[in-house]
Amino acid sequence: MGIMENDTMENEESTLVTLGKALLGAMLGAIPAMLLWVVLGKVGYLAAISGFFMFLGEIIACNYFTRKSSQMNIWVALIICAVVMIFDVYLCERFVWSWELSDILNEYGEGEYSVGIIDCFKNFKELTEVFEVQEDFTASLVKSYLFAALGGFAGVMKLGKR
């Protein structure tokens, strides 16, 4: 292997490391907004402000994790954050619905055993089919994506003014 080939492999590896750092930053940066999303969702509110904070947290953490890398492109960072946001919104909505299903099962169940949120989360598809609420969940998820997109767009606009 020549010197040029070795140098190319190191650049590819550092690109992968940079992308990994960006992904990790986006995932960690979304956590506070995900908690806000779940709490607001549990009390029955859906707000674009959660999407705004989620995207902003992702961008800030992504920037923090990759600040020393000259290879990080803003468009790549935006795409990474958007993909993470799509996944996180789904997780948040599923968790909120799992919490609601758990509450309903524990309130109206036989009382012999408790059904936890995690159990409902793991068996979500089966439970939504049994209770015939899969369409309601899908409608709620679409609405959540719209609010998240609105909040994310506001975040991009705010960053674009800088």
Structural overview:
By secondary structure, the protein is an all-alpha fold. The protein has helices spanning 3-42, 48-66, 74-108, 117-122, 124-130, 134-160. The protein has six helices and no strands. Helix content is 83%, strand content 0%. Helix 1 packs antiparallel against helix 2, helix 1 runs parallel beside helix 3 (74-108) and helix 2 (48-66) crosses helix 6.
The tally of beta strands, per DSSP, is 0
Supply Rg.
20 Å
In oligomeric terms, what are we looking at? single chain
Number of helices: 6
Q: Which structural class best describes the helix and strand composition?
A: mainly alpha
Characteristics of this structure?
single chain, 162 residues, mainly alpha, elongated, disordered N terminus
Concise overview:
With 162 residues, the chain is mostly helical. It has helices at residues 3-42, 48-66, 74-108, 117-122, 124-130, 134-160.
Topology:
Elements: H1 3-42, H2 48-66, H3 74-108, H4 117-122, H5 124-130, H6 134-160
Helix pairs in contact: 1-2, 1-3, 2-3, 2-6, 3-6
